[in-house]
Amino acid sequence: MIVCCSLADFQQALASLPKDCELGFVPTMGALHKGHISLVQNALKYTPNVAVSIFVNPTQFNNPSDLASYPRTVEADCRRLAEAGATIVFVPSVEDIYPEADTRVFDLGGLDKTGEGPRRPGHFNGVAQVVTRLFDIVKPKYAFFGEKDFQQLAIIRYFTKKLGYPVEIIACPTLREPDGLAMSSRNTLLTPEHRAIAPSIYKVLKNAQQGAAQNLQLIVNGKNAETTPSELVQIAIGEIEKEPLLKTEYVEIVNSLNLQIINKWDDAQDIQMCTAVYAGNVRLIDNIKLK
Q1: pLDDT band per the 50, 70, 90 thresholds, residue 193
Q2: Of 33, 36, 123, 194, which is the active-site residue?
Q3: Which residue, among 225, 259, 48, has the nearest Cα to 152 in the 3D structure?
Q4: Would residue 177 count as lying in a domain?
Q5: What is the DSSP secondary structure assignment for residue 245, as one 8-state letter?
Q6: Sign of the CA dihedral running 100, 106, 143, 206
Q7: 36 catalytic, yes or no?
Q8: Which of 39, 91, 178, 203 is the most buried (most CB within 10 A)?
């Protein structure tokens, strides 16, 4: 495995690969866990040549303290990537990615109007800035992203297609700890008390999934739903906040394709519940398919 700590080194490493090889790409912000490694493993099913970037992108953080506290473990990350079979690891500087201030503003098709968008102003524009910059540098055939960041995945698919990048976006399933907590680099920041209670977020999502299924079955049987989507949201918030160590930022039920909030179960063929919850000072996101 080749580790490149500059843009020049990375370009040299790319040039050493077989001509016209189909490169797989896994962009990360480091602090890697099994979920990230699963992205590499998925990539290796498509191509033997897989590049991984480790870059904590400042333009997608609207909270400076969040940027400062984001875990950085590059040496350990590289060891894990070598074991996983990655071909190249790219660890650029901010100057490599942004030789000049990136002032581009992207059309995100309205996909940033719900969920994370209003709560993290500028976040998804920053994601678009860094992903397009990395696509321009890496020129991959495939790029792999986790479904835990459901809204981010939808937005990346949108601007990749809109801007005409010849990159196939591959979605990979959310990996969870044995107790159900979605794997995240931020989990390492949880106190033992908050780590013990954080899995209840997924339990609430599973309960909501069952509740949605019951209401959808009533509709199929020609009956009225007992609970509307907005009522199910309030139930979920109440269940999460039964735990005094957890504070809900939002729970939303959205159309999986356009990410608009739905008011009736028959408003969309594909429906997702998405949430952000604070466990102490650590912000955790998760989602589940309802329909």
Answers
A1: very high
A2: 36
A3: 259
A4: no
A5: T
A6: positive
A7: yes
A8: 39
